[in-house]
Amino acid sequence: MNSENFSLSEKIVSPSYIRQGSQARRGHEQLIRHLLEQGKCPEEGWSESTIELFLNELAVMDSNNFLGNCGVGEREGRVASSLVARRHYRLIHGIGRSGDIAAIQPKAAGSSLLNKLTNSVVLDILKLSGVRSVASCFVVPMATGMSLTLCFLTLRHRRPKARYIIWPRIDQKSCFKAMITAGFEPVVVENVLEGDELRTDLEAVERKIEELGAENILCVHSTTSCFAPRVPDRLEELAAVCAKYNIPHIVNNAYGVQSSKCMHLIQQGARVGRIDAFVQSLDKNFMVPVGGAIIAGFDESFIQEISKMYPGRASASPSLDVLITLLTLGASGYKKLLSERKEIYSFLAQELKNLASAHGERLLHTPHNPISLAMSLNGFQAEGDKAVTHLGSMLFTRQVSGARVIPLGKEQTISGHTFRGFMSHSETYPCPYLNAASAVGITREDVTLCIKRLDKCLKTLKKEGSRVSHFENKTRILLWEQDLPLTDI
């Protein structure tokens, strides 16, 4: 409804009523105008009616929704199912063009505008979350691992002789496979144990650079968010090393946007040294479906270079999901979620500490990890890996998701590289442990219920263990009395 249509409406319905409706419409349009003018996340969240009005306005700007459109090409935004069309708000053309994911599509002005606005709003959120000097970013419809691969492939053109990527160890398959998929050889640098924490071995990183030669190294691939007892890499020191040897630096910031500490590390690293790009997941940080990531950096030309490396058009779904979410929350709503997450982290830490003490265990001291916590499982060490892994399966069947139980000495081979002590980020971590994390969206009820069920599982395991121990002792006595070997117990 434009002003002319409202004027015509006054001939049908009382003008005072129409003017009231027109003013209500202008309220929606004013919010949309502010978004277009500023390109920032609104401070207060929008209503669903405003968001749907905005998305419908965008959709009618795409050629597949033109009245009387006659499409004779191979890609005309045709959709067989009306349910699918509604699911995507009839924004069917996706984003980008065959040569650049950030390019404008002549046939899809609305989808192109959606793409540009999403990238602008997300950039604003990255700044609000702590990386004030970030210059550019874009949403890519791939999860974190493949997005890291895209960064490495872009660097290949800048450093054609490079073969190696230096990688302080973190036991997570996708970031390792990202380097393999890009065609590079990961150089795994083991962490050093400081108290309970596993931290970056800076001396080992520098030795590897000198040993391999800086010109043969594509980049240093560091990590912020991770499972305790590993903690975020020493980003400032690594950034300084990268600047010293003129080596690119890519940061895996998978779920670090929700942590002010992780974002501060990136900001400081860029200030004192070199960080070329940092990659973060959409689903882990913004509570949207899996399938998208944000690639961001401090040099706009390099981020544009990465976006041009993406082959072909791309799905608009991740961009649409995160834009709807941020418009719903507003900047204040998102900051509130981050504040609540931090408060619940302290609550989870205290609850785990109390539970650990009640069972003769302890909460591992990992103050440099702002999201993940770890509780020792020393009491199960004598019974071997089976008791530890059994605890994990017990929790899962009792609908406690996300808790990770880490036994000692597990080996895992990934793309020809064998990791000893896999999942513990170390070949020789001193004890088995259980992980729990306070991630964005968690509630106090989640923590309370998890602790209650974990307590029951630990008590059940101890009873089972005592019965097994009693049986073994009786068996040993019988075998000893009959002068038989004890090796088969």
TrEMBL record:
Q: In which pathway does it act?
A: Aminoacyl-tRNA biosynthesis; selenocysteinyl-tRNA(Sec) biosynthesis; selenocysteinyl-tRNA(Sec) from L-seryl-tRNA(Sec) (archaeal/eukaryal route): step 2/2
SUPFAM superfamilies tied to this protein: PLP-dependent transferases
Keyword set, alphabetical order: Cytoplasm, Protein biosynthesis, Pyridoxal phosphate, RNA-binding, Selenium, Transferase, tRNA-binding
Answer yes or no on keyword Transferase.
yes
General function of this protein: Converts O-phosphoseryl-tRNA(Sec) to selenocysteinyl-tRNA(Sec) required for selenoprotein biosynthesis.
Per its Swiss-Prot or TrEMBL entry, what cofactor is needed?
pyridoxal 5'-phosphate
For biological process, the GO terms are: conversion of seryl-tRNAsec to selenocys-tRNAsec; selenocysteine incorporation
Ligand binding (tRNA): 271, 398, 463
- Class of this enzyme: transferase
Under catalytic activity, the entry for this protein gives: O-phospho-L-seryl-tRNA(Sec) + selenophosphate + H2O = L-selenocysteinyl-tRNA(Sec) + 2 phosphate
- Subcellular compartments: Cytoplasm
May act as a substrate filter by repelling compounds with a negatively charged alpha-carboxylate, annotated site positions: 74
What is any Pfam family matched here?
Answer: SepSecS
Q: Binding residues for pyridoxal 5'-phosphate, per the UniProt record?
A: 75
Q: Which family does it belong to?
A: Belongs to the SepSecS family.
User: This protein is called what?
Assistant: O-phosphoseryl-tRNA(Sec) selenium transferase
